[in-house]
Fold:
Amino acid sequence: MDRRTLGSQGLEVSSEGLGCMGMSEFYGPRDEAEAIATIHRALDLGVTLLDTADIYGPFTNERLVGRALAGRRDEVALATKFGNQRREDGSWVGVNGRPEYVRAACEASLERLGVETIDLYYQHRVDKTVPIEETVGAMAALVSEGKVRYLGLSEASPATIRRAHAVHPISALQTEYSLWARDPEKEILPTVRELGIGFVAYAPLGRGFLAGRFRSADDLNDEGDFRSHHPRFQDDNLAHNLELLHRLEEIAADKGVTSAQLALAWVLHRGADVVPIPGTKRRRYLEENVAAAALELSGAELERLDQALPPGATAGQRYADMKSIDS
Structure:
């Protein structure tokens, strides 16, 4: 797999990463053996960027990733996040960017992952009650101590990104980005490109929707699948968004690929500074996703996709509650 550079500080990763969240929570039943096999298969196929967070599980996803990496730590750029604070019972505390919490969260993640250094450490959500300079200052101290190599932000606004980058170089900004979530094109992508920050696209398959796996509310009845309450999977929104999916599937059929592969290829064609991290917990979907990295899209195909799924076409908000998104 080709490699791409995130930021200007030297972080090099595979052109496509692997999001590990769904292996432990939010997307229905778990199968730890298959999840670990999926991570191993990803490494075998050349995927080097693994993405997790302390809250996934909560806390269990980091442990799972750590077990999967036993004996293979040197093969990956390991990314995790702090800032969305949860208790052991899964209840939510809130967003926390206080300097003392940054350090405590990092120490806990290092222990769960079983590693000495985190390659890319993100603030998962911006704490609007704490100046970003204080949070990033604490993150920078972790870099100085060798506990973290590179810093990242997630779902941060252009103003916050600029302020953070002035304290310590930010290597990656992670935000939802796909054919059905094109919001970053307005201000986020221009900002990170001006500053030399890489862009990591999470949910590049629209939480599985662009893969064609959900046709009705009945397809989302797995216990623990948060998509059953997601605005874009609800009633009239779902009906509207299925029309968009049909357009994508028509273009994919003409090209002889799956809609998931076409959607991923589109993200990969947004620039050499963009790295999608499709999440999956099964090897068969991983292999389908990885194959998308080899797809070439012509100018005419890209234009057709732009016309079929233009910015703002998707019905429904990205989250039921957008208050945690920095804007």
